[in-house]
Design goal:
The protein is an alpha+beta fold and 265 residues long. The chain has 8 helices and 8 strands. The protein has a 6-stranded antiparallel beta sheet with strand order 4-3-2-1-5-6. α1 packs across α3 and α5 crosses α8. 15% of the residues are buried.
Length: 265
Amino acid sequence: MDVKRALRAFFLKRVLLRLTERPAPNRIPMSGPRAEERNYYVVRLKWVEPERDMLVSSMHENTVVGLELLGDSYQVQVSTTLEDAAAAGFDVDFYYRRYEFSSKNPVAFELNSLFGIYQLQAAKHDFSQWLFNKKSLVAVERYALLRYMVNLTVQQREVVFNPVALAGREDERAVFHPSFQRHVAYYSFILDSLLADGLLSKDDFSYRVLPKALGALNAYEEEARRHKSALRLQFLFGLFGIAASIGAVIQAWPIAEALYKRFSE
């Protein structure tokens, strides 16, 4: 074994001995309270020639034990030497609370673990989430949401929408915001109102934009432009009225002044 392979085998053994002490369960929770309790690993070794894929379960001295991939699942128990494992591709997923870290380099992964880099990254995300939670989630009004959905549908004809995705579309941190569920309920209500107007179709929990929505959006925007023009004209008429009043006062001032002098004598 050359120096590079020996160094890789050394770190790989350290990694496997430590990681196999906390194997991931068969079903890994991806959300909810149980996701916050995650602190375990999934380790795989992959060989090219001959092609093999092994899910590591334990390490005994210089022997690696695990399950080999057969079809779509890992089901055949096998073992291999540490030297053979060092020649394989390394793939690890570290599930730490709601975060997931991956690596294909056992040396880099071991050093990052020793210096607590993954925990520091999680703490950084926690702090960022804490700051984000101090803000209020911004709700988009009905036709602004419809405009967004129409524009996206024009670009991707088969796109579908749901309240959860729409509520979290601005920032992925929104999912962990304290008012996220209330935000989802708001978007669900907006989507149902557009559905009632015949602008959307619904299949289970997914919504699609119907062609009719484009006409309704154009009509709304035309009405908005007219309203804006009417307000502008109203403002101009107001200014004209003020200017006319000032002009009338200026014109009447000499007469008022003359009358004042006449009656004050």
